[in-house]
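Entry
Fold in token form

___
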Amino acid sequence: MLDGKHLEQVTDCIQNTLQFQFQISWQLLDIHLTGAALTELPNDEFLSGNRTRWPFADKPFHELAAWLNLELMKNAAEIGYCRFLYASSPPQITGGQVRGSE
């Protein structure tokens, strides 16, 4: 069983990891889609590699869009699962306060 201090460290680690993944995904979105209105792109732009940069250099733009969508969905699922685990965990007493009894 995890004690209160160790549980806080684990929770902080998970939270930091999820925040990092979100920041990376957001930065990739910003880098790759700056100036691109996806609804206005013609089909040949989705098939060309003109808009892709590292790590998708020389790949069609539609692969980047699909990968980015997958990453954002994965991150949202991880955040949702962590929230579920947090909400379903038994109340913990940390620092004189009971967590999970709100």
